[in-house]
Amino acid sequence: MINLNLFRSTTVQSQDGTKIGIRSLGKGPGILIIHGALSDSEDYIHLANNLSQDFSVYIMERRGRGISGLQGEDYGMDKEIEDVQAVRIATGANFLIGHSYGGLVALEAAQRDHTIEKLALYEPGVFLEPQQWQWLSDYEAAMNRKDFREAFAHFVRGIGHTPPLTKLPKWYAKFILKIMIRGQHWYKIVSMLPENLNEHREVQRLSGTYRNYQSLKTKTLLMVGAKSSPGIKHMTQELGRTIPECHVETIPKTDHFGPKNDYCPEVIARKIHSLFNQV
């Protein structure tokens, strides 16, 4: 296990005054890692470590977790992009890595700011068709009742990253998830369930808009796990055809969670290293 003390910790102030935490390691051209939903910077320290021999790697703590400030009542994608820009200004990082929701943030940031030179995206939170997600309302209702297990079950079944659970009756999926996820892992998830709800409202709002990325000018590596769902694989291929300068890679033996510490960060780091080292 990598010692967190190897990382330097600092904060920057975003445009609205919100504090944004950063962990950093290494020396060289700057890379900014933007983590996914129900995650924080600690979940990507192995990925950062594997890139730190040749790059200065910065993992931002997205608002709503860790040492960063709250999401705020006016939270939305604009706030996420403001946070990314604040970190980029402070660090000089012009290469972005985004996973899942963080990949959607990275895409939106790069579409607006062409000084972002390269993107590496792992299964970004893009939906090809507009989504009408009843499960978001069910999730919110469960949160209001403080039934966090129910809320999480609605999310896992609704978002579709774990197809076997998606097909199960909700009561059974809830039971399986309670067995699978316990202790500190569960408490960490619970702490981010409100933020996750807000973030997936943004995913829903942006669903069906992927053709906007036809105007993207950034050289892009788009990755998908070989064990991921057919829907995610289809999205990845279509998005790869949409982004003008894009190369698609399938990462063997992993799924939606590939970049995180306990999955496949070493292999993914090698793919990213190849793109980011190109002149």
How would you characterize this protein structure?
Strands 1-2-4-3-5-6-7-8 form an 8-stranded mixed beta sheet, sandwiched between helices. The longest helix is centred in the C-terminal third of the chain and has 24 residues, at 183-206. It is an alpha/beta fold and 279 residues long. It has helices spanning 45-51, 77-91, 101-112, 134-144, 148-159, 163-166, 170-180, 183-206, 230-242, 265-276, and strands spanning 8-13, 19-26, 30-34, 56-61, 95-99, 118-122, 219-225, 246-251. The radius of gyration is 18 Å and the shape is globular. Helix 1 crosses helix 10, helix 2 (77-91) crosses helix 3 and helix 4 runs antiparallel to helix 5. The chain has 10 helices and 8 strands.
Short note summarizing the structure:
The chain is an alpha/beta fold and 279 residues long. Helices cover 43% and strands 17% of the residues. The radius of gyration is 18 Å and the shape is globular.
